[in-house]
């Protein structure tokens, strides 16, 4: 076998495989330098010219190819300097040529490369690299001497953490500091001198640029493009990019327009800063905040349940003692009548009443309120954030639909109002074990009040459930604590002059908690209690017909029996609806209304009765503390009686000859007789 002449073998390779070698060389170079293949920019062109010159020298000047080839390559170093290559990039370029020549040759010759051919390739590439590096260094030294200040500035900018990019008024990128390339992970030399719309689109695509929300980041979203369009500064634009080596970076960008003396726009300076660490900490803080909200929701629920449980336990202990005395006294009274037994019974009932008063006083002291004008929508949003963790956790999370009408403000304690809404949200959640959606709606109700409706998708309530929903003395398993919480919430709403009711949906699916609170009047509008026209003096000397309205029939019948013994003609209504029907059928002189009733409260019923019969005597009978009840509600009635009722005071009220009046003929504030 004849020995192979290295120059002939390499010449033959370049004659037949030159285009393929140029393509592989360009591909290898792009991978090494993360170079972009931009439209209108042929990366292969300068490499193809070098290979053509090498092929010509191997064919025409084989004996001098090692000396002449470096001279041919020398201008390539200056060319790469103008393209903003680094010295290391130039070395990688020729190293890539060496690898490609050896690879193509070995594949053509059965995976073998003769030592002579390998030595020739190494020598040619080494000389070419040295020549290009010398040219690169000479231009660099010349530039350093000529533009020393610019070189110093370039060095400063190279070591800054902030990337700076300059754009001309026509959208052409004219300058980019090295940190821009570091921050993006892609060299920007291929972009400088090009129009942004053409050159930057492949850059953003390569780094998978996107907004913090996940939407793709477009060239027109860049701050300098917006500044050129809007002709003003653009601040704090965030962009997330993927680094070539893996991981993500969050970049903050701002742009400032530069104006010429004549007022013409010269261009825009855009800065780029790495905010990855700050963004990571922000995400961690947001995650911690979400967890804190979940813990707050759980803590609110747990603390409320524990406090109510302790209160109920202590009250039950004291009441059981009193009931034991009552039962023993009644047993003795059945065996033998003695006046002292009756006195003892009356004394014990008085002690029970004092205990209830102390419990109510405890509640007043416990809830030291700071009443302010609270925007209802704001309170609902804040409460939802507190409860969101509880609503969304578990196997069947709940979604929430907000339909907030910005109806205005209510007079309440902001903290207690938030806690109140949280309690209702969690109560609604308990009804939806399989998940679903809650609908929160706010609106004015047309009667001077604001309405919050919390609509669930749970099963509708049975009629008897609605009657017992706010009764804390239920005996069903698990119902007592739930009802006690709702009773506390209802009492709080009433203290602010509002009402809390539960309604089944008209569609037959789900139910809704409905909170109605008086709306705060706008500044400069004086709030007046509703006035009722009264024709002539109101006389009650012959009051005989009394309507007793109470959903607790035992209470109502006992009241009717006591008043009947006093000479009054009494009729009982178990609900507000029945009371209105009876009131339309006959004339009543007075009405005793239980404050807490399902569907329609005693206060609402008083408003309706006052419209129908302004002269009637109306009194609220309640076991709740009415301090804090709003003036508009109190003005509807003539008196408020606390349970247990003092029958003597009640008789005095019903037999009065004339309603109390204030100066000017307006009705006086209602009296609250002692119980």
Automatic annotation (TrEMBL):
Stretches assigned to the PAS domain: 149-194
Keywords from the named record: Phosphoprotein
4-aspartylphosphate: residues carrying this PTM: 594
Stretches assigned to the Response regulatory domain: 545-658
PROSITE patterns in alphabetical order: HIS_KIN, PAS, RESPONSE_REGULATORY
Pfam families for the chain: HATPase_c, Response_reg
Cross-referenced SUPFAM superfamilies: ATPase domain of HSP90 chaperone/DNA topoisomerase II/histidine kinase, CheY-like, PYP-like sensor domain (PAS domain)
Ranges for domain Histidine kinase: 314-521
Region of interest (Disordered), residue spans: 656-675
InterPro entries per the UniProt record, alphabetical: CheY-like_superfamily, HATPase_C_sf, HATPase_dom, His_kinase_dom, PAS, PAS-like_dom_sf, Sig_transdc_resp-reg_receiver
PANTHER family in alphabetical order: HYBRID SIGNAL TRANSDUCTION HISTIDINE KINASE C, TWO-COMPONENT HISTIDINE KINASE
Protein name as annotated: Response regulator
Biological source species: Hyalangium rubrum
